[in-house]
């Protein structure tokens, strides 16, 4: 989890970096609490911790292979190709819409119609056009050592005013409704001016992004060879730049996090196939969650279920934040499941038995943890903010997919197909350190080692 969260430090956006560092520190603090404070409290409780049992529960030790999850894992292992194909088809179908994802930043037009900001947005759009909610700002600096009177500054600013069609009729420049300026910082000692530009399109429209790119190119040409320093900004342009920056660094973060997780799992399990399988499965499950998010929030399928009044583009930083959190959670589940399988493999060297009993003894904990996380994430859907809804819904769906299709269907099937080769580690990599994350585990008893787990 910490490795995944620290991947956000690769993105040169202070807010994203702060989010990643703060979350990583929070996880680290909880880790130390789990290793120190929790054992102390359990020591105080002693045997009294089991004094009260939930109704329907008893102290009888169940045979793992005969439990629901034991029988389920046996079924997946005895038909590995069917399980693999069925699970893969479901994930691919869910992930397919991700190829059509449109990044952007929701504006007040995506808010519920009952909110005052949505009412104001609609009134301004109806009265002045869509572009009034997507203003652009151009700041131009003149020679600060030689302040000019405003009329003299106007002459020097002629190339910029022409490039922006300042005070010209609508349509003089494609995509510009009107352009106001230059507005000086001082009438008699002008060293800087601003222009206010209203596009003909809304904040999230592709036309607005194209306009920003054209105006920046025009400004660069207009100020070339002059002492003028012009920059186009404003909230709309800033959000466009932020989206482009996140899209640029998203593959870098994904690559770095996956590589780091692969190396750590390889050192922990002394295997090549196990970490490779984990990386691929986690990427596919997250892509499937992205696909579901696109279907609901971008395409509007069943959007009423999450209380969404309008379709919205996918907020650019949400897939980035979702990836690091979900990849970390998936790796937590992976380590928990695979460490148990590795213990059983070391004790029995029976691939089928290690898979079935590994799933049977960890599935209840994994599914319980997943249900808790889903309840937390689904609570975000109650927020009126579409962005908060998107984050909560996306992460809840991702946890659901990972803890069911991936962890309980695909992993047993793939490990059964790998067989003993899953734990192969090349001798030429034996110099690498072995990270023993749990120390020497309890011995697997003969009774457990001899439990039948279905037909070979």
Automatic annotation (TrEMBL):
<feature type="domain" description="Membrane transport protein MMPL">
    <location>
        <begin position="186"/>
        <end position="424"/>
    </location>
</feature>
<dbReference type="InterPro" id="IPR050545">
    <property type="entry name" value="Mycobact_MmpL"/>
</dbReference>
<keyword id="KW-0812">Transmembrane</keyword>
<dbReference type="GO" id="GO:0005886">
    <property type="term" value="C:plasma membrane"/>
</dbReference>
<keyword id="KW-0472">Membrane</keyword>
<feature type="transmembrane region" description="Helical">
    <location>
        <begin position="314"/>
        <end position="333"/>
    </location>
</feature>
<dbReference type="InterPro" id="IPR004869">
    <property type="entry name" value="MMPL_dom"/>
</dbReference>
<feature type="transmembrane region" description="Helical">
    <location>
        <begin position="249"/>
        <end position="269"/>
    </location>
</feature>
<feature type="domain" description="Membrane transport protein MMPL">
    <location>
        <begin position="2"/>
        <end position="80"/>
    </location>
</feature>
<keyword id="KW-1003">Cell membrane</keyword>
<dbReference type="Pfam" id="PF03176">
    <property type="entry name" value="MMPL"/>
</dbReference>
<keyword id="KW-1133">Transmembrane helix</keyword>
<feature type="transmembrane region" description="Helical">
    <location>
        <begin position="390"/>
        <end position="410"/>
    </location>
</feature>
<feature type="transmembrane region" description="Helical">
    <location>
        <begin position="354"/>
        <end position="378"/>
    </location>
</feature>
<feature type="transmembrane region" description="Helical">
    <location>
        <begin position="28"/>
        <end position="49"/>
    </location>
</feature>
<feature type="transmembrane region" description="Helical">
    <location>
        <begin position="281"/>
        <end position="302"/>
    </location>
</feature>
<protein>
    <submittedName>
        <fullName>Unannotated protein</fullName>
    </submittedName>
</protein>
<feature type="transmembrane region" description="Helical">
    <location>
        <begin position="81"/>
        <end position="99"/>
    </location>
</feature>
């Amino acid at each position: 989890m910490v490795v995944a969260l620290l991947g956000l430090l690769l993105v040169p956006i202070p807010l994203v970096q702060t989010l990643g560092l703060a979350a990583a520190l929070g996880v680290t603090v909880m880790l130390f609490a789990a290793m120190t404070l929790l054992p102390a409290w359990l020591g105080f409780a002693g045997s009294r911790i089991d004094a009260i049992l939930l109704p329907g529960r008893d102290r009888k030790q169940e045979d793992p292979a005969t439990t629901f999850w034991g029988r389920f894992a046996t079924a997946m292992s005895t038909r590995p190709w069917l399980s693999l194909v069925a699970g893969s088809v479901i994930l691919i179908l869910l992930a397919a819409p991700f190829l059509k994802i449109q990044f952007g930043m929701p504006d007040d037009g995506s808010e519920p119609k009952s909110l005052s900001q949505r009412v104001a947005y609609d009134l301004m759009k109806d009265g002045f056009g869509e572009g009034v909610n997507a203003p652009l700002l151009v700041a131009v600096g003149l020679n600060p050592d030689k302040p000019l009177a405003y009329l003299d500054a106007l002459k020097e600013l002629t190339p910029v005013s022409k490039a922006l069609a300042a005070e010209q009729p609508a349509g003089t420049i494609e995509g510009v409704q009107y352009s106001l300026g230059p507005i000086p910082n001082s009438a008699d000692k002008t060293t800087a001016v601003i222009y206010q530009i209203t596009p003909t399109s809304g904040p999230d429209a592709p036309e607005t992004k194209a306009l920003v790119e054209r105006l920046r190119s025009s400004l660069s040409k207009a100020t070339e060879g002059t002492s003028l320093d012009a920059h186009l900004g404003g909230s709309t342009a800033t959000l466009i730049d932020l989206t482009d920056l996140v899209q640029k660094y998203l593959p870098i973060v994904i690559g770095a996090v996956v590589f780091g997780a692969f190396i750590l799992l390889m050192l922990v399990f002394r295997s090549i196939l196990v970490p490779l399988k984990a990386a691929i499965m986690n990427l596919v499950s997250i892509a499937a969650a992205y696909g579901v998010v696109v279907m609901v929030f971008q395409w509007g399928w069943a959007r009423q279920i999450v209380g969404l009044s309008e379709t919205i583009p996918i907020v650019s930083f949400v897939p980035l934040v979702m990836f690091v959190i979900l990849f970390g959670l998936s790796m937590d589940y992976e380590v928990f499941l695979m460490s148990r399988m590795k213990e059983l493999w070391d004790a029995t060297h029976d691939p089928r038995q290690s898979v079935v009993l590994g799933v049977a003894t960890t599935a209840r904990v994994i599914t319980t943890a997943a249900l808790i996380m889903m309840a937390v994430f689904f609570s975000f859907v109650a927020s009126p903010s579409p962005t908060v809804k998107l984050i909560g819904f996306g992460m809840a769906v991702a946890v659901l997919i990972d803890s069911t299709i991936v962890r309980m269907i695909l992993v047993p099937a793939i490990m059964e197909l790998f067989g003993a080769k899953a734990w192969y580690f090349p001798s030429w990599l034996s110099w690498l350190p072995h990270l023993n994350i749990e120390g020497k585990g309890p011995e697997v008893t003969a009774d457990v080692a001899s439990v039948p787990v279905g037909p070979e």
